[in-house]
């Protein structure tokens, strides 16, 4: 195989044969593979997306297995067998499922703690310290999973929301915050005109819907970027280049539905709901009904509150399966949400959210 073709292979395989003794070697290999985020295709065959960190980690592991008396092989691979084999899309789905399960486990552990927080302005310093320690531990565990979340598992947003809610609780509970935050005023759409809205690539329902809300209700010419924001410390600069749709020449970056974003999940609210509430848009019954559908699909798919949610969820899933292009996903998703909003506006009255 030519060298340039070998470098183009999107996956790495680690195939090993580890002897029963010494017993620690098998456990050590399992821990290393888990830390790298590898997924088992079958017994002793693991896969990772190609990348410098993954390649170095697998080569180091293979060397340790060989030194321990076993055999290990690391090679590039692609999956394009349609009949009876795995495709690249199916392998990618294995990673999403694995990370989704880890995020959901974290969320299930954290949810009771979050619900028990109470009013942040009525707790003493030891309680705040305990919550801060819990939030720091949750963030560390979350970041360990996020580091190997190669394809943006949807359940990531559940944990991000709990973290954002806990960190907001800590800010409100800080000395002096009770006087500073008496009421939460609505943001003005005019203050957000001409911005570049930045989010993670691989957009799904909450990011699609949040972008739609921005374009339809905050800035009709809003620009979007997918990936790390190329902004200076003052929040300006660097929006031009690939992965951007909308107005050219904007300078202020606003992050949404990503780590350390200005707008992301807060507690039990998805990003769409947070944007809607902070801009005072949730008073519109039809828009609130759209928000309830987005919440169902994003956070409560197994127990939807709205009868429309499963069908809309299937439409959004179909969009993401048909294309990996984030601009196209937004374009297609916007049309679905336009129609959904029109449906709720013509329903008399719109069902309560």
Task: Describe the fold and architecture.
This protein is of the alpha/beta class. It is built from twelve helices and eight strands. It has helices spanning 3-8, 23-36, 52-67, 88-115, 125-146, 156-173, 177-180, 205-218, 271-278, 285-299, 309-322, 326-346, and strands at 11-17, 39-42, 45-49, 71-77, 195-199, 223-226, 244-245, 252-255. Strands 2-3-1-4 form a four-stranded antiparallel sheet, with helices on both faces. The chain has a four-stranded mixed sheet with strand order 7-6-5-8, with no helix packed on it. A hairpin with a 2-residue loop joins strand 2 (39-42) and strand 3. Helix 5 runs antiparallel to helix 6. It starts with a helix and ends in a 7-residue tail after the last helix. The model is unreliable at 1-7, 178-183, 232-244 and 348-353 (pLDDT under 50).
Topology:
Elements lengths: L2 H6 L2 E7 L5 H14 L2 E4 L2 E5 L2 H16 L3 E7 L10 H28 L9 H22 L9 H18 L3 H4 L14 E5 L5 H14 L4 E4 L17 E2 L6 E4 L15 H8 L6 H15 L9 H14 L3 H21 L7
Parallel strand pairs: 5-6, 5-8
Antiparallel strand pairs: 1-3, 1-4, 2-3, 6-7
């Amino acid at each position: 195989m030519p060298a340039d073709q070998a470098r183009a292979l999107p996956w790495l395989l680690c195939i090993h044969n580890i002897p029963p003794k010494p017993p620690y070697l098998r456990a050590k290999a399992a821990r290393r593979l888990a830390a790298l985020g590898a997924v088992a295709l079958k017994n002793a065959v693991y896969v990772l997306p190609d990348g410098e960190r993954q390649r170095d980690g697998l080569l180091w592991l293979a060397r340790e297995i060989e030194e321990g008396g076993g055999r290990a092989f690391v090679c590039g691979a692609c999956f394009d067998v349609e009949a009876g084999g795995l495709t690249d899309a199916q392998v990618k789905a294995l990673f999403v499922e694995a990370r989704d399960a880890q995020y959901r486990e974290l969320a299930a552990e954290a949810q009771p703690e979050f619900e028990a927080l109470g009013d942040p302005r009525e707790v003493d310093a030891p309680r705040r310290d305990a919550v801060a320690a819990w939030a720091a531990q949750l963030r560390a565990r979350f970041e360990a999973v996020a580091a190997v979340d190669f394809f943006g598992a949807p359940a990531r947003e559940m944990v991000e929301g709990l973290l954002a809610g806990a960190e907001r609780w800590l800010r409100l509970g800080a000395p002096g915050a009770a006087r500073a935050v008496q009421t939460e005023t609505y943001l003005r759409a005019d203050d957000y005109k001409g911005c570049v809205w930045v989010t993670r690539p691989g957009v799904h329902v909450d990011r699609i819907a949040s972008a739609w809300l921005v374009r339809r209700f905050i800035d009709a010419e809003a620009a979007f970027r997918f990936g790390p924001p190329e902004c200076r410390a003052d929040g300006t600069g660097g929006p031009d280049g690939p992965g951007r749709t909308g107005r050219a020449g904007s300078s202020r970056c606003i992050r949404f539905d990503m780590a350390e974003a200005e707008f992301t999940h807060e507690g039990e609210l998805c990003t769409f709901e947070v944007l809607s509430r902070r801009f005072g848009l949730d008073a519109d019954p039809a828009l609130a009904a759209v928000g309830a559908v987005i919440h169902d699909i994003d956070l409560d798919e197994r127990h939807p509150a709205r009868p429309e949610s499963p069908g809309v969820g299937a439409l959004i899933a179909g969009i993401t399966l048909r294309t990996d292009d984030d601009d196209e996903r937004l374009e297609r998703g916007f049309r679905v949400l336009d129609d959904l909003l029109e449906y709720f506006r013509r329903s008399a009255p719109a069902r309560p959210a």
